[in-house]
Amino acid sequence: MRLDHFVINVDQKYQKDIQIIKSIENSGFPYKPSWGKGTKGFKASNLWIGSEYFEMIHILKEDGGGWKNEWVDHYNNGHLGLICIMIDTDNLDKIYEALIKKDIKITPPVFLQFKWFFNLLTRTMPWRNSYLPFFEGIPLQIGFQQMKDNKAREFMEQYMVPNSRDNQIYGIKDVIVQGAYTENDFKLIKAVFSNYNEDERSITINFSTNQKLTFQNNESYGVEIITECKNKSYIDNTIQIENIRLSNGNELE
Question: Considering only the top CATH level, what class is 2-250?
Answer without folding.
Answer: alpha beta
